[in-house]
Structure formats: C-alpha cells, structure tokens
C-alpha cells in the first residue's frame, strides 16, 4: 500500500492542468489584436472546408468581443507532445512574439495532443503531464496561448463543440436556413444585411471567392455556396 501511495504521489506531482498554461478566450479585450492558429487533424474529412469554417468561426468570435484578427496560420495534421514543433507553428510563434500578440486556437488539442491519441482507438487520450505543458510554453516562446473552449475541456466536450460548429458554419445545402430558433436571426435578415455588401464588392470587380473571403473578415457566417448563388443572380 505504501508503494502504491508513493506512485500516486509521484504521478500527481507530474500532473498539470492546461488552464495553468493556456488562457481563456474571455481574457481577450476590446481593441486587442490576436493571431489565429487554425488546425484540422488528419482524421477530419474535407479538411480544406473545415479550415475555412474554423477560421470564420474564430474571426466572428473575436469580432464579437470587439477585438481584431492579425496573422492567421493554417495547419493540417496533429501536433503531438514530445515531437518537434511544426515549422508553421514556429513561424506563428515568431510573428506573435514580435507583435506582442496572443495566439488563439479553438481548443487545447489544437496546440498539443497526447502522443498516444487516435481518433478511433484512443479518442479520449489527453495531455496531462506538466512537463508537456511546460515544453509547449517554451516552444511557443512564452507567447500567451488562448483557446475558445475552456482549456481543460474534455475530449468529449471538444468533439461536441466541433460537431455543432460544423453544422452552424455549413448551414443547410444551398444556403437555405433551417427552422428559425429563438434568439437566431432568419435568412431574410442575413440577406438584407450582407447582400448589398456583396453587390458593392462585385461592382468593384471582385469575384465570388474574393467576396466570400472579405465577408469572413467582417464576421459574416455565410457558406461559400450562398455567396456564389447571390453573385450569380446579380
């Protein structure tokens, strides 16, 4: 029993919490500029689209807090504890460090995954060692790291958020709205807000893809198919 207790004490001394090293989204202040780290894992389908949806979601969240988006870094694939930091991550850290900015991702696993994580065989594996979190801080040059979700969110909570975010950002096929829910604006209000902007950007010579990217920077939650349909109907 004494040996078991000693082992447990040793494990507890090694245990760390993500929230001790990663800040919460609510710490972003109005007027602040934050950089985005937009990551999709190898297990996610249609990764290009997921990258776009994730970036659009984070941009909207930042704008709703009255802050602004600076640099945006995309990465396809996981980043695992004990492995070298991918070059795009290093560049994102250098830029954020030079500008004195925070680096925002959706969840802790976008910064760091357990090396034994597997989307099918071990989906609930989660980084827990203090040493791994300390390495994370060092690798990112002590740049303040922030997540939209609670840094200590469980893998189940992260998966639930990703499903809801995906549904929200993609909408229904053809850009049509689902049944209106309490507290949500309907399609007519969205169209009235953004259609004149689309028309103005088209008159300036922008194509449908350029207009879609511009709307994302303005915080619009509209899928590309909707923008293309509006564009072609003008």
Describe this entry's structure for a reader:
- The structure is a single chain.
- With 234 residues, the chain is an alpha/beta fold.
- It folds into 2 domains: 16-170, Rossmann fold (3-Layer(aba) Sandwich), CATH 3.40.50; 174-232, no CATH class.
- The chain contains 9 helices and 5 strands, in the order αββαβαβααβαααα.
- Helix 2 crosses helix 6.
- The chain is elongated, with a radius of gyration of 20 Å.
| Helix share, percent | 40-55%
**Number of structurally distinct domains:** 2
Radius of gyration: 20 Å
Q: Count the strands?
A: 5
Quaternary structure annotation = single chain
* Secondary-structure class: alpha/beta
Main beta sheet: strand number and arrangement? 5 strands, parallel
The average pLDDT score comes to: 84
Q: Which descriptor suits the 3D outline?
A: elongated
| Relative strand content | 5-15%
Name the CATH superfamily classification of the largest domain: Resolvase, N-terminal catalytic domain
CATH class of the largest domain: Alpha Beta
CATH architecture label name of the largest domain: 3-Layer(aba) Sandwich
